[in-house]
């Protein structure tokens, strides 16, 4: 069974909606993991998994359960690194594909930005998603989902 995993705590609603529509359209099992309840339509293909509050509880569950070839949607770079090592496919909510070629650079940049924030030099996170980013995600997600479904037969 092919599964799409969503690190749903920080996943924008517009991106979740695209994922949920695709789950129904393609009859793909999809798991949204968060530390709070998420409203999702009743579906045999969509399930939410609520984890206890706490640092990295959702990440730990995803890392434990994801299998090679499955797709993860996350903006969490350390989690992406862990599941890439298991052979999973990773896409950010901005439609960026993370892989063995670019994950080290992303981890280094994340650590650098964390150091800047800790020193007070830089604050804030990424810009909010606009229509362009949502379209980029939808296109990248459709391609990644099609590849996953083809590879699993």
UniProtKB/TrEMBL annotation:
<dbReference type="Pfam" id="PF02639">
    <property type="entry name" value="DUF188"/>
</dbReference>
<protein>
    <recommendedName>
        <fullName>UPF0178 protein A5892_14395</fullName>
    </recommendedName>
</protein>
<dbReference type="InterPro" id="IPR003791">
    <property type="entry name" value="UPF0178"/>
</dbReference>
<comment type="similarity">
    <text>Belongs to the UPF0178 family.</text>
</comment>
């Amino acid at each position: 069974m092919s599964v799409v995993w969503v690190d749903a705590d920080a996943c924008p609603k517009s991106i979740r909606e695209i994922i949920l529509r695709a789950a129904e359209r393609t009859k793909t099992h999809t798991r949204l993991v968060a530390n709070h309840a998420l409203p999702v339509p009743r579906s045999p293909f969509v399930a939410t998994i609520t984890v206890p509050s706490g640092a990295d509880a959702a990440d730990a569950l995803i890392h434990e359960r994801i299998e090679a070839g499955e797709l993860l949607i996350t903006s969490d770079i350390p989690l992406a690194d862990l599941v890439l090592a298991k052979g999973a496919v990773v896409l950010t909510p901005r439609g960026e594909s993370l892989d063995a070629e670019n994950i080290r650079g992303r981890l280094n940049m994340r650590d650098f930005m964390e150091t800047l924030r800790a020193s007070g030099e830089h604050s804030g996170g990424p810009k909010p998603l606009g229509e362009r980013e949502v379209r980029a995600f939808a296109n990248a997600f459709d391609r990644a989902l099609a590849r996953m479904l083809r590879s699993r037969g």
